[in-house]
Amino acid sequence: MKFIPFLTGLSLAILVVGAVGCSASSEVEADALALREKVEALHDSLASVDSLVVESALISYRMNLERLAPYAADSSKRDVVVSDGTTLDRSAKNLFKFQAQRRVWMGALTAGSARLKSLAHDVRTEYIDTAQGRVYVRDEQGALWAVLQDARSRMHAAQWCLDKADSLNVRMEDHFARWGSPQ
Fold first, then answer.
1. How far apart, in whole angstroms, are the C-alpha atoms of residue 2 and residue 171?
2. What are the backbone angles phi and psi of residue 89, rounded to the nearest 5°?
3. pLDDT at residue 22 tops 50
4. Measured between alpha carbons, how far is residue 31 from residues 10, 20, 92 in Å?
5. Mean pLDDT of the 10-39 span
6. How far is CA 65 from CA 24, 49, 101, in A?
7. How far apart are CA 57 and CA 65, in angstroms?
8. What are the Cα distances from residue 169, in Å, to 76, 130, 148, 159?
9. In the prediction, which pLDDT does 25 show?
10. Secondary structure letter of residue 127 according to DSSP
11. pTM of the full predicted structure?
12. What residues contact 77, with CB distance under 8 A and at least 6 apart?
């Protein structure tokens, strides 16, 4: 009779340890999948930015900069030339950097997403243990953090430049119309 409670206690202990192990495993899998969702959301956002719109705005900024340059010698227009010229120059640089880096970020995000999918599968199927899975998730977070931060900040800067492109172009056309041809 004393043997039966021992087996029941042992069975209960095995169930608790198994449940904790499964819970930890599912937490690691959930962490990998949550990071993957962030990565894929940013990838989709980057892919949704129309390259033709970016190129058009970039051309507009550069053309306005070229047209503005001859007015720099006129002291009565210097404040406007410096202010608007700085905005045009920074906007053009932001769009150029965004466009140049977008493919690199998207490639890194695609590869990171694939690694995270594989990691979640490996943890779920117990190909790798939970402790090692946690280490891999932290490693992926570290590897993707810089890409996520850089891509997000440059995308926001590019979006600001795209949002302001039309109004700045109208402003520049107004200046050029009022100023006439440069001396």
1. 91
2. -65, -50
3. no
4. 31, 16, 38
5. 67
6. 58, 24, 23
7. 12
8. 21, 56, 31, 16
9. 62
10. S
11. 0.74
12. 71, 179
